[in-house]
């Protein structure tokens, strides 16, 4: 079987006559969606997925825990992220489909893992959308005294409408959201380098690369302190895999997706490692505190009065970008589940523009309900749900790596065609990635702030397992073939 046939027919499965509907074929080939995302948009979606509030805000807390050695944590974690993205790229070139993570888990690990992955990734983006639109409403209060629920309502409705018009409009909006973030970081790096090398501004007298080691060394909190920041670092990278969801709607996935994935190393080197090196050289790590954005602190030290406002605007766009991505991905995940008989059939419907209108509507409604709960009952129970985002995002990475390992083994045996975009060093790099993620999950158990994720995840796993076996008992043919009955 050629790679072209694989794209058209999907993976080899035990065929049962009369049980492969047209929607199932669409799920495997990507048919039904309109390929409206160009290479320029996919590039920026890939870049934007790696730049979020985890960098602009979360890095402050990580700096207080590890000092300059946080740079090393980003180097190691960024390398693992590259392994994950190359593994995803290999799978995408084997079979580019919109429901990528759950589709690959279903094919190579079994229907149970496809079911769990699809619903988990869907919930990940619903929860993320709730938290990000709530955060965006809070950021608006920096300039205007607007009731948060009003801002949240306006943002949610606006992004929902955009996602129902066309996938091209979604891509264009995401392009400009990402452009704002990229411009801010590059501007900060250039200004910081100017302060360090030329000595201008209020920070010129103390700015120096020696700040990276002159205040109790490069590891001021020890190696243990650096290790304990890994969960914060990995959280900052969540959503980098979103480019895989665009596979079914890319105008030329064979070219656009590999190009986007190949940029991962320099994106991490520039936006994370580069910006941290400059910021920690301009401002000593001892100045930061957990509640302050390192970008705000750097702007203030340099003497740019509008610095706080600039960062607030950038973080606002980052939050809206994340919510926009959530609107996009949840509809696709629900449709993929429905096409495979693992979700309500109503979610298989597409609008005339080729958009999963009902899946997106259902997810947006849950996001609105979550915002209302957040403002009416800001209890610990809600915090437990929000904490689920980190562990569920890493589950998608685990499935990508495990699926790539199984795919490579089958391809090497000649059972499947080889991918045109092989992951270098795989499957060893994939095994290393799995071990690293496992270590991060263990470390989360030692952090009181992150430990809550490990309490919520088993509850969700039990609920999904029960739902799986109930569905399997009612429609056993679905899980024999991986496709819905007609």
UniProtKB/TrEMBL annotation:
Subcellular location: Cell membrane
InterPro entries from the UniProt entry: AA-permease/SLC12A_dom (IPR004841), Amino_acid_permease_CS (IPR004840)
Pfam families membership: AA_permease
Signal peptide: none
Main localization (coarse): membrane
Residues covered by the Amino acid permease/ SLC12A domain: 42-473
Superkingdom of the source species: Bacteria
Keyword Nucleotide-binding listed: no
Keyword Transmembrane annotated: yes
Membrane topology of the entry: Multi-pass membrane protein
Membrane-spanning parts: 44-63, 69-88, 109-128, 148-170, 182-203, 223-247, 268-288, 308-329, 350-373, 385-407, 428-446, 452-471
Region (Disordered), start-end ranges: 1-27
Keywords: Amino-acid transport, Cell membrane, Membrane, Transmembrane, Transmembrane helix, Transport
Family label: Belongs to the amino acid-polyamine-organocation (APC) superfamily. Amino acid transporter (AAT) (TC 2.A.3.1) family.
Protein name: Amino acid permease
Organism the protein comes from: Streptomyces albiaxialis
């Amino acid at each position: 079987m050629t790679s072209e046939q694989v794209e058209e027919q999907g993976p080899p499965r035990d065929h049962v006559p009369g049980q492969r509907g047209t929607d199932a074929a669409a799920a495997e080939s990507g048919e039904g969606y309109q390929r409206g995302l160009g290479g320029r948009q996919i590039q920026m979606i890939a870049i934007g997925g790696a730049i979020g509030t985890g960098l602009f805000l979360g890095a402050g807390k990580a700096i207080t825990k590890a000092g300059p050695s946080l740079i090393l944590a980003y180097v190691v974690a960024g390398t693992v992220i590259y392994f994950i993205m190359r593994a995803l790229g290999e799978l995408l070139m084997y079979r580019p489909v919109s429901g990528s993570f759950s589709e690959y888990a279903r094919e190579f690990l079994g229907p149970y893992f496809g079911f769990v992955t699809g619903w988990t990734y869907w919930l990940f983006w619903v929860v993320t959308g709730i938290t990000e639109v709530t955060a965006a409403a809070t950021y608006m209060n920096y300039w205007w005294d607007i009731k948060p629920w009003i801002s949240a309502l306006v943002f949610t409705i606006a992004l929902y409408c955009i996602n129902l018009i066309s996938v091209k409009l979604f891509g264009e909006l995401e392009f400009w959201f990402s452009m704002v973030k990229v411009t801010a970081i590059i501007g900060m790096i250039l200004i910081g380098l100017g302060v360090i090398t030329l000595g201008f501004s209020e920070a010129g007298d103390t700015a120096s690369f020696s700040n990276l080691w002159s205040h109790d060394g490069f590891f001021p909190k020890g190696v243990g302190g650096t290790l304990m920041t890994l969960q914060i670092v990995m959280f900052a990278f969540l959503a980098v895999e979103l480019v895989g969801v665009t596979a079914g709607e890319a105008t030329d996935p064979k070219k656009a997706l590999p190009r986007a994935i190949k940029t991962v190393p320099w994106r991490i080197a520039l936006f994370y490692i580069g910006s941290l090196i400059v910021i920690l050289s301009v401002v000593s790590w001892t100045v930061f505190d957990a509640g302050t954005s390192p970008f705000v602190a750097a702007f203030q030290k340099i003497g740019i009065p509008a610095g706080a406002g600039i960062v607030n605007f950038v973080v606002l766009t980052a939050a809206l970008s994340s919510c926009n991505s959530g609107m996009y991905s949840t509809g696709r995940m629900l449709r993929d589940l429905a096409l495979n008989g693992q979700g309500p059939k109503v979610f298989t419907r597409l609008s005339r523009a080729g958009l999963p209108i009902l899946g997106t509507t259902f997810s947006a409604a849950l996001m609105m309900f979550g915002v209302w709960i957040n403002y009416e009952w800001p209890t610990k129970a809600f915090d437990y749900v929000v904490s689920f985002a980190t562990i569920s995002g890493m589950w998608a990475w685990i499935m990508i790596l495990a699926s790539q390992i199984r795919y490579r083994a089958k391809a090497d045996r000649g059972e499947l065609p080889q991918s045109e975009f092989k992951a270098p060093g795989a499957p060893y790099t994939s095994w290393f990635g799995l071990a690293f993620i496992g270590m991060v999950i263990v470390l989360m158990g030692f952090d009181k702030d992150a430990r809550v994720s490990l309490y919520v995840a088993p509850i969700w796993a039990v609920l999904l397992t029960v739902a799986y076996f109930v569905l399997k008992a009612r429609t056993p043919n679905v899980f024999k073939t991986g496709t819905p009955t007609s």
